Amino acid sequence: MANNNDNKVLNVPHLRFPEFTEEWEEHALAEYLDFKNGLNPDVKRIGRGLPFISVMDILADGTINYDSIRGKVEATEREIENFSVEKGDILFQRSSETLEDVGRANVYMDNRTAVYGGFVIRGRKIGDYNPLFFKYLLSTPLARKRTCRMGAGAQHFNIGQDGLSKISLCFPLMEEQNKIARLLSLIDERIATQNKIIDKLQSLIKGLRVCCMQRNGSDNVYLSEIAQIYQPQTISSAELTEDGFLVYGANGIIGKYKDYNHKTEQICITCRGNTCGMVNYTKPMSWITGNAMVINTDKYQDKVYKKYLYHYLSAYNFNSIISGSGQPQIVRTPLEKLKITLPTISEQKQKAMILDKIQDKIEINHNVLNLYILQKQYLLRQMFI
């Protein structure tokens, strides 16, 4: 890679392949794409027929392909003629509840016939470009900034064909487009592979955790017999600090605080909000807020191994004890009555050790995934103008 940080005059990116020296040229999207709004069919026609591209397909990872499209619609021959997509067409999200998501784009990379919906704007290919390069270009910080600037609305933000047509971005020659697209697509393939590895490990640990719950010949005890169950004191978000001890709330780690209320590691279950029932295993010397229920086994170490119970509860479906019409919540009494399958301490430790190793492997692979994502974000900032 060649570094162009010292180049103050030429219209070139900071980072590029060394064989390329030509300047990039700025063009309006209208020079490459012909825009058209999508099909708005009757509800009765949705659910069968041709693949029907929606906003969800645009926001999904990877490119849009015939087999990956979620929806279907019955379309007439005229509708297929007017609202079909071809390989290389760019699809834009027309409407969004948040400004930062308006105009997000993806590319159709299949030769088979599909149609697109009314919340989507199609950019039909009329210029010469690499479709994958175009997709990556539209996701760069500058492209997103210029696209969001064209968004308008109060409750919902919208972008139209005219707004998209006026967006100007810089393009290199086709050979450089091809090479950039190839590099970034290889990183995307590695990210997809990494996600599959994580999914398989998560499926494995989930299955093994369920086996723990179904163990025959073990004692069944109430959770209240092996743990103290309580909600600690809550602190407000205004009290959080940049440094200090980790704070666990409804969404896992939510910040730091000057003090801690638990010296040892603890199992805590989110007991309020949309993440109700999520199980966390805290770090030592942490503050746990009142949005989580602590399952403290420190006084019952002769009966239960804490990590075993953590894995056991991680497999538990708490839906049956979640209450509340407005905000979901879990209260202490039904938790106390949960039946726990409890083998001997030595067997608990053995099972926990196996599950811990898989958990560690999941975390390592998550870290690798995050590195690939950061690498891609860096290249999107540096290899484009």
UniProtKB/TrEMBL annotation:
Classification via Pfam families: Methylase_S (PF01420)
Keyword Nuclease: yes
Listed GO MF terms: DNA binding; endonuclease activity
Any one GO biological process: DNA restriction-modification system
Matches recorded under Gene3D superfamilies: Bipartite methylase S protein, DNA methylase specificity domains
Domain called Type I restriction modification DNA specificity: residue spans: 22-202, 220-370
Domain of life of the source: Bacteria
Alphabetical keyword list: DNA-binding, Endonuclease, Hydrolase, Nuclease, Restriction system
Protein family (similarity comment): Belongs to the type-I restriction system S methylase family.
Protein name per Swiss-Prot or TrEMBL: Restriction endonuclease subunit S
Gene source species: Parabacteroides merdae
